[in-house]
Q: What sequence folds into this?
């Protein structure tokens, strides 16, 4: 089975610019997560979708971050405007949403804000 | 909320056994997962404990004690390729997982 696809792999932007990341989960996986991983730290949950509905976005900085999952399949995460502290790896993960067998993560997008 | 504690670094030699501990504080606890992440790579799911006791998967085992809010990952017959970061993650309500800050394992020849 194909894994979780993410693009782009790397992105460098200037502060105050906007950026978007794309994720295509494993086919049939109902639950999709976006995590932010700052260097030297564990992944931190930004938002969780179940199909095309938001389950948890309590840690999403909503003044600058937005995410959507139209049609319950692929998802985009946007940052506008970016700050220096947004430099991190943005990981997308998916799971079937029923019986738990862990998450499958994509390779992530490494964002550098200069 | 949730908080997790795990050692930041562990070093061991090839062929040895190493244990990585994880203590947690949380509400709505469902279980404890372990993930492996190589430098520049994606986290990879290793194991999950929903009940107390030991789960074994090849060279890796994971243990959970709900009463002690404690778990560990045991790696046997260490190989150089096991050098990576290992994260414990608490699975709570609605299926979301909160990750610790990881333990960097260095395996030396």
A:
């Amino acid at each position: 089975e194909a894994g979780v696809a993410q693009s782009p792999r790397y992105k460098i932007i200037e502060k105050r610019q906007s950026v978007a990341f794309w994720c295509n989960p494993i086919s049939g996986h109902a639950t999709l997560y976006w995590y932010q991983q700052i260097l030297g730290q564990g992944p931190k949950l930004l938002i969780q979708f179940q199909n095309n509905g938001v389950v948890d976005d309590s840690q999403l900085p909503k003044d600058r971050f937005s995410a959507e999952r139209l049609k319950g399949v692929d998802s985009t995460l946007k940052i506008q405007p970016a700050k220096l502290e947004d430099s991190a790896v943005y990981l997308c993960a998916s799971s079937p949403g029923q019986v738990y067998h862990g998450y499958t993560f994509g390779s992530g997008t490494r964002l550098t804000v200069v | 909320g949730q908080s997790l504690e795990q050692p930041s670094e562990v070093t061991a030699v090839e062929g040895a056994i190493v244990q990585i501990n994880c203590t947690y504080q949380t509400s709505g606890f469902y279980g404890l997962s372990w993930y492996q992440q190589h430098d520049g790579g994606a986290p990879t799911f290793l194991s999950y404990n929903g009940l107390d006791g030991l789960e074994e998967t090849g060279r890796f085992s994971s243990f959970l004690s709900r009463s002690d809010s404690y778990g560990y990952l045991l790696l046997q017959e260490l190989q150089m390729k096991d050098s990576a970061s290992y994260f414990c993650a608490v699975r709570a309500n609605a299926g979301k997982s909160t990750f610790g800050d990881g333990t960097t394992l260095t395996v030396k020849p």
Q: What stands out?
A: Residues 6 and 21 of chain B are 6 Å apart (CA to CA). The radius of gyration of chain B is 13 Å. The mean pLDDT of chain B is 95. Chain B has no helices and eleven strands.
